[in-house]
Design goal:
Number of domains: 3
CATH topology of the largest domain: Rossmann fold
Largest sheet: 6 strands, antiparallel
Number of helices: 14
GO cellular component, one term: plasma membrane
CATH superfamily of the largest domain: P-loop containing nucleotide triphosphate hydrolases
Keywords: ATP-binding, Nucleotide-binding
Distance between the termini: 27 Å
Shape: globular
CATH class of the largest domain: Alpha Beta
Number of strands: 16
Strand content: 15-25%
Protein name: Flp pilus assembly complex ATPase component
CATH architecture of the largest domain: 3-Layer(aba) Sandwich
Family: Belongs to the GSP E family.
Strand order of the largest sheet: 7-6-5-10-9-8
Radius of gyration: 25 Å
GO molecular function: ATP binding; ATP hydrolysis activity
């Protein structure tokens, strides 16, 4: 095949050789799915045994994940699968090994120091890191960690659909949740009230920003982590799916000197990304742009971005009162959550500012209904609303690998 000899995976022992650190970024699921296995380093290249040397997608994925030049060797699929199982079947699945070595059963403990110690143990740290790593490999937007009576359920939202992952037993609930709360700088002693936090970390060479939300449930605290990959996001209308027919109309609304432009849709539909893309288009040297967000998801050079902090009284409404005294041309509000924020936004639009914001409604017409329901007067809406865009995040078919 390709002039390469067929290697015999059976000649290798049961213990994998010392691997390059970059190989740790390849999951067991990925190795099994594409029937490939890194076996070592030779002449400055990563030696990769693979069943299908024509699988450019898998080869490029390994090259991208490891950052190493590859030396390809071809083997039988059955032998490579057997090698993967012998070398990585238990160690790389990690979840089972970690669970066996982790101490648990602290779910009912009120000893905060004991919880802190448990959350700081190496197996628990590895387990949480593994969950986050899997989310990155799956290109998930959210991680859901939900406690139940018999297990700690782990799910990932991939392309808008929840996919269940490997779940640890219920005995590790307190340790895992406490570990995440420590990483997010939350109060691990507070288990009765919801909390919000943030984790900044580097995974597989990527700078990740995780928004963490906890809420108490019957069997413990449920955690949801929203993953924001600052390095891969591209603020481009065409890549967001805007068509040639629609984009000129949308740009015409954005070019208005004053008024309100709203983007609506359910949670996770890309509303904030659309607003960031609009701001990046409007961000010129002769325009001052100020945003108030909770949280600041992406930092854009040349734009003044304010992090809302409700716990100290800096909510959207209070921040907006200060913003209008900063002589802005364009104001972006992360979300119109209440009547006070909506009224200040409308007053800003009436006094010559362009205001961009989001609303949680199912369609564009629902945006008007939502504002009226908040208590905004209808005559103010007719005077200030330039446009309302409703959007959804739609799964795309991979044409290269789709079955015909």
């Amino acid at each position: 095949v390709l002039g390469l000899p067929l290697v015999d995976a059976r000649q290798l022992g049961d213990t994998p050789p010392e691997m390059l650190p970059e190989v740790q970024g390849l999951s067991l699921r990925f190795l099994k799915q594409f029937h490939l296995c890194p076996v070592g380093e030779r002449d400055g290249r990563l030696e990769l045994w693979i069943a299908d040397p024509y699988d450019d997608y898998a080869i490029d994925a390994v090259r991208l994940a490891t950052g190493c030049p590859l030396l390809l060797q071809v083997g039988l699929r059955s032998e490579i699968d057997d090698l993967i199982e012998r070398w990585y079947g238990q160690g790389r699945s990690a979840m089972g090994t970690i669970v066996e070595t982790a101490d648990g059963d602290a779910n009912s403990s009120d000893d905060i120091e004991a919880l802190r110690d448990l959350a700081s143990e190496a197996p628990v740290i590895r387990l949480v890191n593994l969950v986050i790593q899997h989310a990155v490999e799956l290109r998930a937007s959210d991680i859901h960690i939900e406690p139940f009576e018999s297990r700690l359920k782990v799910r990932y939202r991939v392309d808008g659909v929840l996919v269940e992952g490997e779940s640890p037993p219920a005995k590790l609930t307190a340790a895992v949740i406490s570990r995440i709360k420590i990483m997010a700088k939350l109060n691990i002693a507070e288990r009765r009230l919801p909390q919000d936090g943030r984790i900044m970390l580097r995974v597989q060479g990527k700078e990740l920003d995780l928004r963490v939300s906890t809420v108490p449930t019957a069997h413990g605290e449920s955690v949801v982590m929203r993953l924001l990959d600052r390095e891969t996001v591209v603020f481009d209308f065409y890549k967001l799916g805007f068509t040639e027919e629609f984009l000129p109309q949308f740009r015409k609304v954005l070019e208005q000197p004053h008024g309100i432009m709203l983007v609506t849709g359910p949670t996770g539909s890309g509303k904030t990304t659309t607003l960031y893309t609009a701001l990046s288009q409007l961000n010129t040297s002769d325009v001052k742009i100020i945003t108030v967000e909770d949280p600041v998801e992406y930092q854009i050079e040349g734009i003044n971005q304010i992090q809302a902090k409700p716990q100290i009284g800096l909510d959207f409404a209070n921040a907006l009162r200060s913003i209008v005294r900063q002589d802005p041309d364009i104001i972006m509000i992360g979300e119109m959550r209440d009547l006070e924020t909506a009224r200040i936004a409308i007053q800003s639009a009436l006094t010559g500012h362009l205001v961009l914001s989001t609303l949680h409604t199912n369609n564009a017409a629902g945006g008007i209904t939502r504002l009226l329901d908040m208590g905004v007067e209808d005559y103010l809406l007719t005077s200030t609303i330039n446009g309302i865009l409703a959007q959804r995040l739609v799964r795309k078919l991979d044409l290269a690998n789709a079955e015909r």
